């Protein structure tokens, strides 16, 4: 059998080659003729095959390329059409014929600006230019340039006032001006002039559809299909209507018909993704949209749907990026604006959401607008406003459980007695889900109506069956009743139903910690990891437990495991970077933060963390670059602009800092952080009137805030008006009592010669606020500078006891104890050195204490190392010189002192240094 095959193979190959040669022998003109015959027979697919063969036979055949591009355009394959039409023009086909079709291909991809940039502006006023004027007008409308579109249409009207395309362009302009009646008059005139004009029927169908007449729209689309049975746009419009009515199988049949002739049709692929979204096949929809956007990144329907899908998947940053792209192209797209506001709300950026909604003209008849506007107002604690929106939405959709629930929540926040009636009504509605029940339960728990909550929980359980969330609520109710045994049983039942249910494990772990059983708490989260080895929240919880137990190694290990299991997760990298910064491991923190920013290059938290790490390493240049990137990526640039200004000010770029702050305040006029920093710049530049004006503005904008009075006090201090400064600080403290404001009072009292009174005020505050470590540290520093070493040490000891492991605290504590002649100084200096053995300030403290306690050899070594790291530090030089003198090496001591005193640097021990140098000079033989 194999011999038989081998004998016939050459003959078969010869037959195949002869057949191919016969096919290939047809000329391009013959194949073009076949394409025309196929078109006459209504077979566009066969025509496309013949045209492609004609191009294969004659690559430079302009007619074949033009006709192929035209058919691809009709089929909705806009990207392929654009390529062929451009090649036709390059091959010599008349530009006035190609350009209008080429413009339509670009319009189909949403590339409005490219139409205007790449295609010529008609100049002669001839009839041949009318089609190009019309498509330019369409592009100008798409780009939001209505005035320019009107000019293009008027030019076309002057040439051909009864032309169907011109009348349809007038209709588009009327529709853009929200005048559908006028638009329909122009369309009807076009159909009167040309009753079988396919495009006029399509426009009429689109117009009927957007004015809420889907049945009439479907008839108009069918009329267009009777004229042109192969028209992809009409068939896809019918598919879109079917999707809106949830007739997904009908929609899919129409889409499949289109894809048989145009497998790359953007609209068809987009509608398939929309069907997948409707079927909750979110990952499939996302993948299909990614393919569309790879070939046509400016196709806005797909970008908008991609934003919707990412929102549904919970990928909020990605959703926001897509939606911002849509709004940049179409600033008044209501659907995109609403969804962007909802995205920002879920990102806990209610102020940004409010600004986004402000771009939507408020309409009393749009329930969805009032729903999201109410949720934004609720998040901003504007309860009256929220209730108003929800009341309007509920009136428009009285059977909506979701709206009734939101209204109940808003009224609940207002203390309105009708709130519980709304929530009970929502809970009773068919299809109401569990949100209303949940709000009722949470409100009852908050009001400590635990028995009522248990009854509501039982009602929810009847609706939803065995649900770990229900048992978690039950545990909270029993915990409120002080029945910890039943609370534990309830949480345990939740975990039994779902061993991965993190909230119940977290609640049980919290009870374990209260009972001083940290091992049991740890086992709760380890149990979740047994059920789900990659559970991110469980790993983060174990990292947090390790930190509570001062187990730094385990804390870092769990964070690193979380990063390995979830390479794209942001939180573990950010937590690790911040911990590394807190420990002073700035190089490691920078590496971790850079990884986070690489994984999430547009995420504000990642960029903020990277900038903080760059600042900690002294890299102010790259920190500024990171903040600039954050400004560019952020829809609300005010805060990152303020951060950028702070870095610029720290590097003496005062003019640049001022400009950044002015830009920030233009974006958000009441941003307090920017106002206060601008006030500091005014004071630094002696612009006292500007600073005081700003202080008064802040006081007016925020009458319950102490910030404006603080700036007023600082302005008075800068002008040496100490009584006025003290009065402003006292008024500020009365508004918002704080240790920081008492420290400001302390400064003013010192300048007024009343330092002891200042000490008493701050000490009294610390007596009633013993955990205020920041104020205690500031007071300790003041006392240290005033050489009240014993009292300073007492405060440092308290801080160290409450917050152990701080390098600054340990180093300053060691110094204060040493100056107070307390032998514990060496122990704390050693602890600081263990934390940071390469820190020159720490080495100086430990080295000097060792020298003073007679351990001169080790002390000298440390002081030499400290000076090598910080060669211009006058105090370290003084300590080293004194140590050389104490060791008996007078020559080195004398040399070091001469270098120090010759540098012209001022330092506290300068008088002692000069005395020692005289002694050494006098003793020199």
The coarse overall form would be elongated
Residues in β-strands, percent: under 5%
CATH class of the domain at 841-923: Mainly Alpha
Largest sheet: none
Low-pLDDT ranges: 1-24, 400-414, 419-423, 426-433
What radius of gyration results from the CA coordinates?
Answer: 38 Å
**What would CATH call the architecture of the domain at 841-923?**
Alpha Horseshoe
The CATH topology of the domain at 841-923 is what?
Serine Threonine Protein Phosphatase 5, Tetratricopeptide repeat
- How far is the N terminus from the C terminus? 118 Å
Mean pLDDT: 84
| Helix-residue proportion | over 70%
Number of DSSP strands?
0
In DSSP terms (H or I, runs of 4 or more residues), the helix count works out at 54
| Class based on secondary structure composition and strand pairing | mainly alpha
CATH superfamily of the domain at 841-923: Tetratricopeptide repeat domain
Plain-language structure description:
By secondary structure, the protein is mainly alpha-helical. Among the domains are: 770-836, Serine Threonine Protein Phosphatase 5, Tetratricopeptide repeat; 841-923, Serine Threonine Protein Phosphatase 5, Tetratricopeptide repeat. Helix content is 78%, strand content 0%. It has 54 helices and no strands.
